[in-house]
Amino acid sequence: MRLIDRPIDRTALLDAVARSPVTLLTGPRQVGKSTLARQVIVSSPSAFFDLEDYRDLARLAEPMLALRDAGETIVIDEAQRSPGLFPTLRVLVDENRRPGRFVILGSASPDLVGLGSESLAGRVTFVSLPGFRLSDVGADSLDDLWLRGGLPESFLAPENSVSNLWRDDYITTFLERDLAGLGFRFPSTTMRRFWTMLAHYHGQRWNGAEIAQSIDVSQSTVRRYVDALADALVVRQLPPWFANVSKRQVKAPKVYIRDTGLLHRLLGIGSMLELERHPKLGASWEGMVIEQLLARFPRAAPSHWATHGGAELDLRLDIGGRVLGFEVKRTDRPSTSRSMRSAIADLDLDHLVVVHAGQHRAALAKRITAIGAAELLTAQAPLRDL
């Protein structure tokens, strides 16, 4: 499998390793964490421990002895499998706070990995690795990235049929093995039904009661299910934003399958033709654009906004001291709407961007600009002149 350079993520990891004694690199399974770490960690000597390998796990039975002199930079992969390591890391870091001592790789949220606690507070820098960005693979690959998703082996497969089979296997392995490895003990058949049901709700507001009834479990159970998938970094719960207005506002998050390649297999989609004909076409496009934007602006405090009167905004971001709104449309002829004008007024947006499927950029109205997805997601500074 060929390697694709990921300059944004490589720089982020290099910067973290250069300034912090512990770096935690998180991302979903098979997103390329180990590959990126091996590209970045070029100091010698260095050591890699893969905790899915029983031999490496055995080497860490006495972690203080194994880690104290193991190398200049020590990389520990799938660290969530041994949360008892972290008190040892704290002791070793306090002995020598030199930057770049440990790089921890985890396939779950920092809290689930075990670094969300106070054990390494002030000693750790967090870096999140998304799937491939459009800027990594090029604007000409937009449809492939959308259809196959950003997991490297899926995106780089020689043909769609191979990519489809790889993602089918990924979903099965994730449900039957990986969730248990993260500490979740859920029936895999029920979780498959739930994840598939969630794919049909992709881009919609969370309705736990309706989903629970559909798969015949309690609301508290589906709440645990969605939280588990979110902690495993395969589902996003986009929180609501509450503006200081008199309108009744929606309080529910919106849910997305973070990788559209996985979304499409859960929906039984295997080609662009099937995707173009599917009723979730628009929601899939919306989710892909949102994930790409959040990969580009990872600290932008994302939220959605909606009122019970029908006004809504797909995405609100704080970027560079400005509040920006994004409406995602699967069209090449974008236009304004009353909902957009309400969002600008009620959220006091500095600007609203209509992200569309065409190639052109155009001012649609005061503080509303249409920008094609390819330009927005690959240009050096597409928002600078707004």
Layout of strands and helices, then pairs:
Blueprint: H1 7-19, E1 22-26, H2 33-40, E2 46-50, H3 54-59, H4 63-68, E3 73-77, H5 85-95, E4 102-106, H6 110-113, E5 124-128, H7 134-137, H8 142-148, H9 152-155, H10 160-181, H11 188-200, E6 204-205, H12 208-215, H13 219-231, E7 235-238, E8 254-257, H14 260-266, H15 272-277, H16 281-296, E9 303-306, E10 312-319, E11 322-328, H17 338-347, E12 351-356, E13 362-365, E14 368-372, H18 373-378
Parallel strand pairs: 1-4, 1-5, 2-3, 3-4, 11-12, 12-14
Antiparallel strand pairs: 6-8, 7-8, 9-10, 10-11, 13-14
Helix pairs in contact: 1-2, 8-14, 10-11, 10-14, 12-13
Report on this model:
There is one protein chain. Helix content is 42%, strand content 18%. Helix 10 packs across helix 11 and helix 12 crosses helix 13. The longest helix is centred in the middle third of the chain and has 22 residues. The chain is built from 18 helices and 14 strands. The strands form 3 sheets. A 6-stranded mixed β-sheet has the order 9-10-11-12-14-13, sandwiched between helices. It is globular.
Percent helix range: 40-55%
Number of self-contained structural domains: 2
Query: Could you tell me how far the N terminus lies from the C terminus, measured between alpha carbons in angstroms?
Result: 40 Å
Overall strand count: 14
Q: What strand order characterises the main sheet?
A: 9-10-11-12-14-13
Q: Could you list the spans in which at least 5 consecutive residues all have pLDDT below 50? A: none
State which percent range the strand residues make up: 15-25%
Based on the structure given, which CATH architecture of the largest domain is correct? Answer: Orthogonal Bundle
CATH superfamily of the largest domain: Winged helix-like DNA-binding domain superfamily/Winged helix DNA-binding domain
Q: Pairing-aware structural class of the strands and helices? A: alpha/beta
Write down the overall mean pLDDT. Answer: 93
The CATH first-level class of the largest domain comes to Mainly Alpha
| Shape call | globular
Largest sheet entry: 6 strands, mixed
CATH topology of the largest domain: Arc Repressor Mutant, subunit A
- Computed Rg: 22 Å
Tally of separate helices: 18
